[in-house]
Amino acid sequence: MNILFLGDIVGNSGCNAIKTFLPNIIKSNKIDFVVANGENAAKEGVGITENIVNELISCGIDVITTGNHVWDQKETFEFIKDQKRLLRPLNLSNDAPGEGFGIFNSTGGYKVGVLNLMGNVFMKKCDDVFIKSKEFLEENKLSDKYDFLIVDFHGEITSEKMAIGHIFDGNATFVVGTHTHVPTNDGRVLDKGTAYLTDAGMCGDYNSVIGMSIENSINRFYKRDSVKNFPAEGEATLCGAIIEANPKNGLASKISQFIFGGHLQKDS
Length: 268
Hints:
The chain is α/β, with parallel strands linked by helices. It has six helices and 13 strands.
């Protein structure tokens, strides 16, 4: 079982790269299931629209996760109620529309659980992610309701992400961090068989400031003439990880960092 996870898709640059390259990436790497974080996929660089969700799914993405920008496009409040392949963090308010967890079928007929969580430190207010994780694990077991489990932890700080990785070790196939848009080089399989990566990076133009215009971002830091952040529009790099997992126990046997095209790929 080969699982591809892609980091935060940013703006038109990231979306266009997904549309152009993902079908061949899936084929050449024999990918069985694809998850991507899409909370920055709208042309403004924040939120996601129904049209973009449908386009990303048509390119081969099976499930789209989100985070603190999930509601930045107001239409999401409505269409997420019916679009089960778009998740919002499980530990948002119980009154929030949509779901934070779902079980989906892979191309090989396996059941894949996808869980979306959001950190508490330096993030928008949400329920305690550690309590929610504990409750989830008490109610859901690997190889019981699903064959594999992918956890997207959308958070700001590395310590939260690493702690969640260890909490899920042995009970998830892959725990991956999103949100900071910078790929980390610490991908590994933990002691009990869960693959872990602190941050998958982003799918966007890396000749930027975390996907946003360089000049405008610097001006904002200097507090001089600037406007609201907007995405860089250059060639995108697709970043994430490929997980090889064992269908017998749902655990990972290998994790490989995935970097394709653009400014970040060393041999491009």
